[in-house]
Protein: Enoyl reductase (ER) domain-containing protein
Amino acid sequence: MPRIPTETQIINISGDYKQWFGVLQQKLIAAKEEDNPTNNIWLIASDSSLNGIIGLVNCLRFEPGGDRLRYIFNYDGTGSQTYIDFNVSPYSDILSNNLVANVVKEGKVGTFRHLRLADNYDKTVSNEYYLNLGQTRGISGLQCSGILFRDIMIVEGRLPIDSSLTDCPIGFEFAGRRSDTGERVMGMDVRNRCFSTSIYAAEPYMTAIPEHWSMDDAVSILNTYLTLYYGLIERAQLQQGESVLIHSGAGGVGQAALNICQYFGCDIYVTVGTEDKITFLKNECNIPENRIFNSRDILFKDQIMRITDGKGVDIVINSLSGEKLDATYECVGDHGRIVEI
Structure:
């Protein structure tokens, strides 16, 4: 059985570390140098249930002499130092058990253990479940969900995600009907949970769908046009008649940029990667073929500078990288702006 500790082996841990840290440091140094495994160092924490004793000891156990550390955590937090008498119960039991972690809660003594919980340990089967929505949220039955290029990159493992921020990293846009009014709505869920049959959506991120739009139309609008509104209108301050180079012009963001720039009467230049996309832009977006360039090489730089008489463009909407990005920089005119997507 471990030896009953003397008063010098007991250190009360409080919020004011200046009172005990130096003493603890000296005790650990001494424990490292001596060869007596029965001389343990006892840390007593009773000033608060949030005093940090558990993390402190877990870290110090890896230090030289840390194997001598034991602690008693008064979980009830009396707010004052606790007198410890290892000759009487329950402290005599704690001493004989010789455990590192000892917890006193509601007069009972225990310790901490890692337990493997069943997958459904916190689930209860019920035929009825009531959800308090509050005044700023509503449930919508989903009929459409948008698939963004970002979703594809995540699924293919090409884009890292922080799993601590959300339990579902894909599915950002939705269109459906409100369960309370039946109104057709479109919206976004910043928690990325739109690949589902229903969604618990915040009112500020949900709006009515115009009558002449289908739900397929609606679910393809929000992310692309909000991206371009912020990038082109808010940040780049797009003006009537400016010249704009749109990279990847046949994609969702690219088509949205074309619509906005055509509305502003801009002089438009576009890059795409395939012949099919060139045909699409010519037939569906009315872009002249001499304003469409290849995004797979850097020849577009010389072509754009030649067609603009060496002036370059006012704004670039960029989605390229590497040497193509370097070439893009050289296409920007004086006082030009780049919107990085």
